[in-house]
Automatic annotation (TrEMBL):
CDD domains: TSPO_MBR. The chain crosses the membrane at residues 7-26, 46-68, 75-93, 99-119, 131-152. The lineage of its organism: Bacteria, Pseudomonadati, Bacteroidota, Flavobacteriia, Flavobacteriales. Keywords: Membrane, Transmembrane, Transmembrane helix. This is Tryptophan-rich sensory protein.
Length: 154
C-alpha cells in the first residue's frame, strides 16, 4: 500500500509541476514572440507536447515510487526537488522572460540531472525500472535541440 501512496504523491507533484510551468509561461505560445521565432524544422505540432509530457510524468512517477521505496534519503529528495525546479522554471525563463540562452542552460541542467538518475541508481531491484526514464531523456534531448536551434538561429 505504501507504493500506491508514493505513486499518487509523485503523480500529484509531477503533474502539478507541469500545470505550474504551463501557467508561468502564460499565453506566449499563441503570441507574437513565439510565432516569430525561427523554430527548428523538427519542431513537433503542439499536441505532441501534451501527450509526451503525460507519458513522461507517468513513467517518471513509477520510477520515483520504486526509487523512494528503496532509497529514501535527503540526497535523493534534493535531486528530485532540483529536477522539479528546473522543469517548472524552464517554462518561465524561456517563454515568459524570453531568455532563450538561460532556457538552454536550464534545460541542459535538467537533462544532466535525469541522466544522473538513470546512471546512478541502479541496484538490482530498480535496474530495469531505470528504463522508465528513457522517454524523459529522449524528450529532453529533443527539447534541448529545439531550444539550441532557437538560440543559435535567431
Amino acid at each position: 500500500m505504501k507504493k500506491i501512496h508514493l505513486f499518487i504523491l509523485f503523480l500529484i507533484i509531477n503533474f502539478s509541476g507541469l500545470a505550474l510551468g504551463s501557467w508561468l509561461m502564460g499565453d506566449v505560445v499563441t503570441g507574437e514572440w513565439y510565432s516569430n521565432l525561427n523554430k527548428a524544422p523538427w519542431t513537433p505540432p503542439g499536441w505532441v507536447f501534451g501527450a509526451t509530457w503525460t507519458l513522461i510524468m507517468f513513467c517518471f512517477s513509477i520510477y520515483l515510487t520504486y526509487l523512494f521505496s528503496i532509497r529514501k534519503s535527503k540526497f535523493v529528495m534534493l535531486i528530485y526537488s532540483f529536477s522539479v525546479l528546473l522543469n517548472v522554471s524552464w517554462n518561465y525563463v524561456f517563454f515568459n522572460q524570453h531568455l532563450t540562452v538561460w532556457g538552454l542552460v536550464n534545460i541542459t541542467l535538467l537533462t544532466l540531472v535525469i541522466i544522473y538518475l538513470f546512471i546512478t541508481f541502479r541496484s538490482d531491484y530498480i535496474q530495469n525500472l531505470k528504463y522508465l526514464l528513457l522517454p524523459y531523456i529522449i524528450w529532453l534531448c529533443i527539447a534541448t535541440s529545439l531550444n539550441a536551434y532557437i538560440v543559435f538561429n535567431n
